[in-house]
Amino acid sequence: MAHLEMVGTIVHQLTKGASIEEIEKAGLSAYYTDHGVDVYPQAAAGFPFNAGVLACKGDPIANLQEDLAAEQKARATYEKLIDLCRDNPDVLDPLRYLREREIVHFQRFGEALRGVQDKLAEKKYYMNHNNNCGCN
After folding, report:
1. What letter would DSSP give residue 43?
2. Fewer CB near the terminus (10 Å): N or C of the chain?
3. What is the pLDDT of residue 69?
């Protein structure tokens, strides 16, 4: 969840010292009413972050597929934020870093998925090492 902290820090730096007029002009008056100038993780549409977005199924393949999808969604979000901040290099550099990190995470989760699939596809051998079965 370090990316939430980094994005939260960027938002804090961009809004630090903003006047009420600037907050209203930016369309943030409702957000300000609920959260002041504190960072409150939520989707762009206003839905707050909650643990329901952490999809765990108890199955390694399903969990890794969820991880892969989450990394791609995060990458796409960073690309949209980059589009919105194209004139601010102090914001762009951390966003580009976070986007690249999502790409690397996607690659690592893909490697892990292939490893799990290979392991599950291996032929299983069962041996009985118990010589006390009464058999000669």
Report:
1. -
2. C
3. 93
Reading phi first (left if > 0) and then psi (alpha if -120 to 50, else beta), residue 56 is in beta
Q: Which of 51, 72, 93 is the last residue of a domain?
A: 51
Structure token digits, residue 35: 């959260």
For the whole prediction, is pTM greater than 0.85?
no
Specify whether 76 is located in the same domain as 33: no
Is 96 inside a domain boundary?
yes
- Which tokens belong to 80? 């949209």
Count of the separate structural domains present in the chain: 2
> Do 60 and 10 belong to one domain?
no
Instruction: Tell me which H or E stretch contains 95.
Output: helix 89-121
Percent helix, percent strand, percent coil in the chain, to nearest 5: 65, 0, 35
